[in-house]
Amino acid sequence: MEVQVDEEPVPKSRVVKVDSLETWDLSVTEATNQGSPIVVHFTASWCMPSVAMNPFFEELASSYPDVQFLTVDVDEVQEVATRLDIKAMPTFLVMKEGAQVDKVVGANPEEIRKRIDGSVQSIRISVA
Q: Using one digit for the tens of pLDDT, what is the confidence trace for 100-111?
């Protein structure tokens, strides 16, 4: 006898965890080809402010369906952090066509949302 439980399915995360330089390059290329802006959260498991930003970053990803959201653990994928000159955690980058257009260093949800709004609006205007 099967028991059916009416649970809400857990929504799939829209945040892509970058686990290698190859995943990074593929994700950036894919977003660029689709004309999607990218928001990247550079984090580290030992950095509590970074870890505390994870739920907020997930919420952002749900709020902006046409933006690609990536998370990079700087200890796991040092090449990406080095390539983009990431010195502190958390760091949030907004990218367009593979290039950085904005950067927020630190756990400041209000500022991050404001910068994403500004960048996404300007990207939408330039595409229109």
A: 999 999 999 999
| C-alpha span between 16 and 86 (Å, rounded) | 19
Measure Cα distances from 104 to 3, 22, 26, 89, 100 in Å: 48, 25, 24, 10, 11
Query: At 42, which amino acid appears?
Result: F
- The order of strands in the sheet holding 99-105 is 15-18, 68-73, 38-43, 91-96, 99-105
Query: Per this entry, what is the length of the chain?
Result: 128
Between CA 119 and CA 83 the distance in angstroms is: 22
Q: Report how far residue 12's alpha carbon sits from residue 128's, in angstroms, rounded to the nearest whole number.
A: 30
pTM confidence score? 0.85
